[in-house]
Design goal:
Length: 520
C-alpha cells in the first residue's frame, strides 16, 4: 500500500513554524489593547443605562408623590384624602410604590397630608458587578436600586406669628411718582387690607400680628415700658435706648438696664404748626410745639404686641402720620423681639386683656422639643417696609437735659425753634457737638440692620422686605434699597416699588403666608 500523507514529524515541524511566525508577527497587536477597553466600555455603558433608568423612575415617583399630596391637601376637593393619594399612584402605574398609608391631619380650614413613596428597580447590568467585584456578597448588592420620595403639603393656616414693621418717617408725606396720592395714604390702605386678610374668623387663635410703627425710634407703649428695667425720667413717651449688643441677637431681656429716650425734637423739617407741601414740610419758626419728637408720642404710634384684634390694629394704622427721621434697624429689632421666645416671659406679665389667652405661649419656641409639638410650632414672619434708609439720630448733651426743669422745657420747645434768634428760648448755636451728639450714626444703623437681619434669618424667621421710594431716588435711597434686598430671606421675598403697587405687594405677601405650602 502506498502512503501519500505527510509524516508526523513533518506536521509537527510545520505547526512549530506557524507558531513561531505568529509570535514574531506584529499584525493584530491592537486587538490585545482593544479587547480590555471594549470590556470596560461595556461595563460603564451598562451602568449608565441602569442609572438612567433609575433616575427616570425616581423623578416619576417624586412627581406622582408631589401631585398626589397637593391634590389630597386641597380643601376644595371633598373626596377622602387617602383615596385621592391611592388613586394618583394607581393611575400612574405605581400602586405598589406607596410606602405605607398617607398621614393626614385635619383641622378647621386646614389639612396637612404627608406621603412616602418607594420603588425597587431591578438592574440589567449592575447586578453582574456583584459577582465580579464582591463574589456575590449580599452586603454589596447591585441587583436593585431603591428610589425614595417624600412629600408634605399643607393647605390652610397652622400657627403663624407675624410682625408688621412699618415706616412712618417724614418722607412718607411725599407724593407717589406721577400721582396725587401720598405714600402714607397708600400705606394705610395696603396695611389695613393686609391685616384684615390675616385676622379673619376662620384663622382665629392661629394667626397673631404684632404691629411695630417706627420712625426715628419705636414707642413700646406704657404696658411694655413698665415691665422693663429702666429709670424713667419723663412721662411724655415710652422709648428706650438699646445697647450695641442688642443688635447682634433676636433675644430680649427685660432685666437689662435701659435708658429712657429723651423727649426732644432735633428735626428741623416741619415743627410747630408748619404747613405741609408735596415734597415735605415748611417751617414755622414762631411755633415751639413738638410735632416730630425723636420718640413717637401718639397712642397710635405705639407697638401692639401679639394680637388678633383686627379692629385695634387697623384703627391705629388708619391714624398713621409721617414724622421725624428713619431708624429701620430699631423697627427691625422690635419686630424680631416680638417673635423671639425670650419675650414670652415679658408678654406673660402684661396686663390682662393685652394678649389673648389663646396666645399665652407666644412667642413660641423656634424649634419644638419633640415631634408632637413640632406639628403645631408657629411659623414666624417679619414684614419690613420703608421708603428710605437708615439716618442719623441726635440726642441732647447731658448738661442740657440733666434736671427736671430742662427736660420739661425740651418737652415743650423744639430745638429748631429754640435756635431762632427771634424767640426767647435758649440760644443754642446748632445741634452739633456743642449741645447735641449723634446717638446713632447712619453707618451704625446700617451695621445694626445687617446683623439683625442675619440673626433673624438664622433663627428661621421668614423676612419680607418692601422698599418704596421714588423713581428718581438718590444714592442714599438706592443704597437703602440694596440693604432691604439683602435683608429679605430670598430675592423672592423682596419687593421694590415707587408705591403704586403697594396694595398688590401686601396682598401677595398675605397670600403666601396663608396659601398652600409644599415641603420635601
Amino acid at each position: 500500500m502506498r502512503h501519500t500523507g505527510q509524516s508526523h514529524s513533518q506536521r509537527s515541524n510545520r505547526l512549530r513554524g506557524w507558531l513561531l511566525h505568529l509570535v514574531r508577527s506584529e499584525d493584530g497587536n491592537l486587538f490585545l489593547v482593544f479587547m480590555p477597553m471594549l470590556f470596560i466600555m461595556m461595563v460603564w455603558g451598562g451602568i449608565a443605562v441602569d442609572l438612567m433608568r433609575f433616575e427616570s423612575r425616581r423623578a416619576t415617583l417624586q412627581g406622582v408623590t408631589d401631585r398626589a399630596t397637593l391634590a389630597a391637601a386641597n380643601l376644595d376637593q371633598s373626596q377622602d384624602p387617602a383615596s385621592v393619594v391611592a388613586d394618583y399612584f394607581a393611575k400612574s402605574g405605581l400602586a405598589d410604590s406607596m410606602d405605607g398609608p398617607p398621614i393626614i391631619e385635619q383641622g378647621f380650614k386646614r389639612r396637612e397630608v404627608s406621603v412616602k413613596g418607594r420603588y425597587e428597580l431591578d438592574t440589567f447590568f449592575m447586578r453582574h458587578l456583584n459577582n465580579i467585584l464582591y463574589a456575590n456578597n449580599s452586603e454589596n448588592d447591585f441587583k436593585t436600586l431603591t428610589a425614595i420620595a417624600n412629600s408634605t403639603a399643607v393647605q390652610g393656616v397652622g400657627a403663624v406669628e407675624v410682625s408688621l414693621v412699618l415706616d412712618l418717617s417724614g418722607s412718607m408725606y411725599y407724593y407717589i411718582n406721577g400721582t396725587t396720592t401720598r405714600r402714607i395714604d397708600k400705606l394705610r390702605t395696603a396695611a389695613v387690607k393686609f391685616v384684615e386678610t390675616l385676622l379673619v374668623p376662620e384663622f382665629k387663635d392661629r394667626i397673631s400680628v404684632s404691629l411695630v410703627p417706627y420712625s426715628e425710634h419705636v414707642n413700646v407703649g406704657p404696658n411694655v415700658f413698665n415691665l422693663l428695667n429702666v429709670e424713667q425720667t419723663h412721662n411724655f413717651s415710652h422709648c428706650v435706648e438699646l445697647p450695641a449688643s442688642a443688635f447682634t441677637t433676636t433675644s430680649f431681656s427685660a432685666s437689662v438696664g435701659y435708658e429712657q429716650t429723651q423727649n426732644i425734637q432735633t428735626n428741623a423739617n416741619g415743627f410747630g404748626s408748619a404747613s405741609k407741601t408735596g415734597s415735605g414740610y415748611t417751617r414755622d419758626s414762631s411755633n415751639p410745639v413738638l410735632d416730630q419728637p425723636v420718640c413717637p408720642k401718639e397712642t397710635f404710634e405705639r407697638i401692639i404686641p401679639i394680637s388678633q384684634n383686627s379692629s385695634e390694629i387697623t384703627t391705629a394704622i388708619r391714624q398713621f402720620q409721617p414724622r421725624a427721621g428713619t431708624s429701620i434697624f430699631l423697627g427691625l429689632k422690635w419686630g424680631t423681639t416680638l417673635l423671639d421666645p425670650t419675650f414670652q416671659t415679658t408678654a406673660a406679665r402684661l396686663p390682662n386683656g393685652v394678649i389673648d389667652a389663646a396666645f399665652a405661649d407666644r412667642p413660641e419656641p423656634y424649634e419644638a422639643n419633640d415631634a408632637a409639638s413640632a406639628k403645631v410650632r408657629s411659623l414666624k414672619y417679619l414684614v419690613l417696609m420703608t421708603d428710605g434708609y437708615n439716618d442719623r439720630s441726635y440726642r441732647m448733651r447731658d448738661e442740657f437735659y440733666d434736671d427736671p426743669s430742662e427736660r420739661y422745657y425740651w418737652a415743650h420747645h423744639n430745638l429748631s425753634w429754640a435756635m431762632q434768634s427771634s424767640n426767647s428760648g435758649p440760644k443754642l448755636s446748632q445741634c452739633n457737638y456743642l449741645d447735641c451728639s449723634e446717638y446713632y450714626t447712619a453707618s451704625q444703623g446700617v451695621g445694626y440692620m445687617r446683623s439683625m437681619c442675619t440673626a433673624a434669618k438664622d433663627k428661621g424667621i421668614i423676612i419680607y422686605t418692601i422698599s418704596m421710594s421714588g423713581d428718581d431716588a438718590d444714592a442714599d435711597a438706592v443704597a437703602g434699597r440694596t440693604e432691604m434686598a439683602n435683608c429679605a430671606s430670598t430675592s423672592n421675598h423682596f419687593f421694590a416699588t415707587s408705591g403704586q403697587e403697594l396694595d398688590e405687594i401686601f396682598a401677595n405677601i398675605a397670600k403666601q403666608i396663608t396659601d398652600l405650602r409644599l415641603t420635601q
